[in-house]
Design brief:
It is a single chain. By secondary structure, the protein is α+β, with helices and mostly antiparallel strands. Helices cover 31% and strands 25% of the residues. It has one domain: 3-Layer(bba) Sandwich (Chalcone isomerase). The protein has a 7-stranded antiparallel sheet with strand order 1-2-3-4-5-6-7. Helix 2 runs antiparallel to helix 3 and helix 2 packs across helix 4. It is globular and about 40 Å long.
């Protein structure tokens, strides 16, 4: 386990390699860079993979994340209609990400771990366990890929890529820490959180 996490240093996009550009785009996707949000109307249809978790879902909020003129992805927060569509970590919800660019699995893992460790009070053992889980689960994504993560209170989380189960965990601490990247008051970009929560 590395003693510290890698730092991202932003350079003008025209002067960096395609691989480095991928890293920067992923950093922006988690709110680590300068991002421009323009809130859009949410998608009208919930992903079919959510059907086992409820028959009626509402899009709480949605919007594209743009970085140096590139759109990294469109994100939507889905909530069950029961309960009035109120968000809480004590209720089931889903984060739906439609990618508009190529991102390596290792970049998703590293950036996620940085933010999870920053926001949550994780022990070294938890960080190591979370890193191993994400390394074994996440794969490279490309434009058009759709990643859906479902938070299930007291049960953990499940992740789907293009409608197929990618991985699951019963670790409830991981589930909360992961989704807090976008939804916690300490999220790197409060406007990202506001857009998803429809504030």
């Amino acid at each position: 386990m590395r003693s510290q996490f890698p730092q991202f240093h932003l350079k003008p996009i025209a002067t960096i390699s395609m691989r480095r550009r991928s890293v920067l785009l992923n950093a922006a996707a988690f709110g680590l860079g300068t991002a421009a949000w323009a809130q859009e109307a949410p998608s009208v249809r919930a992903p079919e993979v959510l059907n086992p978790y409820g028959s009626d879902w509402l899009a709480k909020g949605s919007g594209p994340l743009k970085f140096f003129g590139f759109k990294a992805y469109d994100a939507t927060l889905w909530l069950p209609a029961t309960g009035g569509g109120n968000f809480s970590f004590g209720r089931t919800f889903a984060l739906d990400i439609l990618y508009n660019t190529y991102v390596k699995a290792s970049d998703i893992n590293n950036t996620s771990l940085i933010e999870m460790s920053r926001i949550s009070a994780a022990t070294p053992g938890q960080v190591q366990s979370w890193s191993a889980f994400m390394t074994g689960m996440f794969v490279d994504v490309k434009s058009g890929d759709r990643l859906v993560g479902v938070h299930i209170p007291a049960s953990g989380a499940r992740f789907f890529l293009n409608g197929k189960l990618l991985g699951e965990t019963a670790d409830t601490a991981f589930s909360e820490a992961f989704f807090r990247i976008w939804l916690d008051p300490k999220a790197r970009k409060p406007e990202l959180r506001a857009a998803l929560l429809g504030l």
